[in-house]
Please model this.
Amino acid sequence: MFKVLVSDPISDLGISLLAEASDIAIDKKTGLSEDELADIIGEYDALLVRSQTRVTDRIMTAGKQLKVIGRAGVGVDNIDLDSATKRGIIVINAPDGNTITTCEHTFAMMMALARHIPQAYMKTVGGVWDRKSFVGVELRNKVLGVLGMGRIGSEVAARAKAFGMTVYGYDPFLTEERAEKLGVRLASVDDIIRDADFITVHTPLTPETRHMIGREQFSRIKQGVRIVNCARGGIIDEEALVEAIDSGRVAGAAFDVFEEEPPAADHPFLTHPKIIVTPHLGASTVEAQENVAIDVSEQLLHILRGEAFKNAVNMPPVAADVLSKLEPYFALGKTLGSFAAQIAEGPVKEIAVTYSGDLANVDTQPLTRYVVEGVLSHHLGSDHVNVVNAMHLAKSREVKIVETKTQSTKGFTNHVSITLRTDKEERYAAGTLLNGFGPRITQVDKFPVDVEPHGHLLLISHHDKPGIIGRIGTLLGNNDVNIATMQVGRKVVGGAAIMVLGVDKGVPKDLLRDIIALPDLNNAKVIHLN
Ligand SMILES: NC(=O)c1ccc[n+]([C@@H]2O[C@H](COP(=O)([O-])OP(=O)(O)OC[C@H]3O[C@@H](n4cnc5c(N)ncnc54)[C@H](O)[C@@H]3O)[C@@H](O)[C@H]2O)c1
Ligand SMILES: O=C(O)CC[C@@H](O)C(=O)O
Model:
């Protein structure tokens, strides 16, 4: 049974998938302080948050069993990603579910700003019929500058066009072709500062975007511009904005987000007549909250159940078509890694993975993570290694990872091979996925074999001489160890050979010692694969 803690208000309908799963127990505890969360997090396998809960290094240290943190939304600035990655905690988000909702909120804010709706409402309900103070401006024929043309920025641009606005877009990833497709003029920040009547920001908050509109930009910004921020507090310098409005350069601003949330009671935005605010409501619609909760719940279930998942924030993204090609090989990669690690003596220096056949034509890096996870799990313990931290752990231990591709298929449609270099030896294991039969180990060192990589195995290297198989069989039988499968591999008659036995239970150490002591036997290794 996996225990999931939901520590922010998240749509019940969205998490019904989790609530109905027989292997999941959900606790909902919102509004916890860091101390309170640190006290209880140790018993949970997963934590589900929105933007309120700050998942700090301290929380993750206390979360001894935490495998996954799900963020029902886009921004993960409330989660210490470095700490999560080091600990192998997978952080997932739901990047698509609130795009339209936040775009619509941006538009609502822009229109409310253009027509002074909140200020007019306050006066009207206060009993003052004031039709002179609230003369607004049209959006039509105005220039809208969009900083950040990702999911939300692009949707805002599309709607602005329907309002008859000319849209300038700036984004380091916006190409001329895409801008043309979106009907947007590809602009620089300076173009936008110079020409825009409205500016809206839709970037993440990064060191680069922090105060991307600050005092310097305000000093040359177009007279009468209106500024909207429904992305992250801090992208626009709040102090500089107030100064620019007070000086008359900027006509007004609409903010959904603040550098510090909630803002202090004396924050100037809260009383400024030309600034309208909402309390980080961009994603707050019934639809978006359901969407993000459903997305993140699905992913969370996959992760807890050890299935393939997408949208991990602390892992490079994998395109859906690549994922569908690689997914069947994840178990093979991890198993081969584990097999190679169990047969090799000495500390690992290098893991060289070679892919051939169909696999040679896709980005196999995600699969390499599984191989590395398999190798390191043997040495560091499977509780401490997973696909998220495998590369980080390898790097921190100076284990070199080499990935190569070859068109030589050795007769297999797909082939994965691992050469494991330790400071004592070099071992080789290769495998494939046999259509209809699943994973197979096809070669160990120089010996071709056909082994189902599962359960307890005994790998024996010996001289190819009559009687040796019988002696090993007798020894195992006398010790009540049943042989389920057997594969013998040799290159030449009477030369070096290997034997891979599938046995029904683990081989105890003293029995292994007796096997190794048999004549004509070089070595024997006990291997366990899941
Ligand atoms: N107010 C809310 O409730 C709410 C809801 C959802 C998202 N958000 C926030 O809105 C923002 C945008 O979300 P999204 O889903 O569109 O993200 P996204 O990742 O799809 O788009 C962000 C874009 O910003 C661009 N970018 C990065 N650095 C830049 C820079 N220096 N200059 C210009 N562009 C830059 C990226 O290339 C990317 O295209 C995020 O900060 C997100 O956290 C807020
Ligand atoms: O949880 C929220 O409402 C905030 C969502 C938003 O800021 C996001 O980044 O997805």
